[in-house]
Amino acid sequence: MFNKNSNPFKDEKIVKDEETKQEESTTAETEETKAEEAKPAEEDNANDKLKKLQEEYDKLNQQYIRLAADFDNYRKRQAQERENLIKFGTENALKSMLEVLDNFERGQKALENVDDCEKVKESFNLVHKQVFDALTKLGLEEIKAIGEEFDPNFHEAVMQTPTSEHPEHTVINELQKGYKLGDKVLRPTLVNVATAE
Q1: Which residues 6+ apart lie within 8 Å of 96 measured at CB?
Q2: Among 41, 99, 150, 181, which has the highest number of CB atoms less than 10 A from its own CB?
Q3: CB-based contacts of 145: which residues, under 8 Å, 6+ apart?
Q4: Each residue of 99-153: pLDDT tens digit?
């Protein structure tokens, strides 16, 4: 019954080894199957993250585009408003000066047959006052100088006169009137300044 050369324990060991190999093979196949099943889940998870990032990027990009368009529209509106302010500011200035121009023309006609210098002087002073009033309404201010202390922000010294009658650095004479618009100097006053003798 028994083969002399055959060892029953040895055969049993071979069978066990083969069973172990089959189990290991089955376990390896199961692990590979699980790994293969896990890969699509990981890929789906990565795809979801990618989609979320893409959506967030698109949303931010749309916000940026809208913001850039809004800023461009704002810039254009500001430029238009500046242009209108300049245009209408000039228009108002010209309207106020038209009255003065009309009075000059009336004065010219009225003075054609006048020999009396007092009437000419009176007409001239009237028109001068009207011009100054029109410019004052537009914001023009005369810079005060005579008797004031010399201020290089408002005065330009073109002469210096040594004197003991006035304190040093005092404006004693105005050679040309200066004007300002608000805080901005349009033209400094040309002055003669007192210095110590």
Answers
A1: 134, 137, 138
A2: 150
A3: 154, 155, 171, 174, 177, 178, 189, 191
A4: 777 777 777 777 777 777 787 888 888 888 888 888 888 888 999 999 999 999 9
